[in-house]
Design a protein that fits this description.
By secondary structure, the protein is mainly beta. It has two domains: 45 residues, no CATH class; 85 residues, Immunoglobulin-like (Sandwich), CATH 2.60.40. Helix content is 3%, strand content 43%. The chain contains one helix and nine strands, in the order ββββαβββββ. The protein has a four-stranded antiparallel β-sheet, with no helix packed on it. Strands 3-4-7 form a three-stranded antiparallel β-sheet, with no helix packed on it. The protein has a two-stranded antiparallel ribbon with strand order 1-2. The relative contact order is 0.16.
Length: 145
């Protein structure tokens, strides 16, 4: 049974959404050149943890969304969380309070760095999740006639 599909863009970057069930095994079937296929078993889903989803559609802000579950929240009441956004030795840190299964942190694109940024979620100064995103805010827009 197919539970998710994806394709990559011209740079080879793609994504998909999969809400993995506990104790299930998932396999990625990847179509390569010359009609060959690669089958790769995905790692098992963990019962607790965090996921970062970056919403970069808005013109002036990027939204860093943190997702977890109730089982994870019951273990984090004494923990400190920080978002660390960095690129080429430049960085910005944002203290974060995680008190719900879904939280969103809006960040003005002019406050972060041009090009590819990495956002890392730290729990008690230990990195636990990471994503990359492209900030096009400072790129000069060309008007085509």
């Amino acid at each position: 049974m197919v539970v998710a599909e994806f394709s990559s863009n011209h740079l080879g970057i793609g994504s998909f959404y999969l809400e993995a069930l506990a104790n299930e095994t998932y396999t990625a079937k990847i179509k390569l050149a010359q009609n060959t296929e690669l089958h790769k078993t995905l790692p098992k889903a963990k019962q607790v943890g965090f996921n970062i989803v970056v919403d970069n559609i808005q013109r002036d802000s990027v939204y860093i969304n943190i997702h977890t579950n109730k089982a994870t929240l019951t273990t984090t009441d004494k923990d400190t969380f920080t978002l660390f956004i960095h690129k080429d030795g430049q960085s910005k840190t944002i203290p974060l309070s995680i008190n719900d299964v879904h939280i969103s942190q809006a960040i003005a694109k002019k406050e972060i760095f041009n090009g590819i940024n990495t956002v890392t979620l730290f729990k008690n100064r230990v990195p636990i999740a990471e994503r990359m995103f492209f900030n096009e805010y400072f790129l000069r827009k060309q008007r085509l006639l």
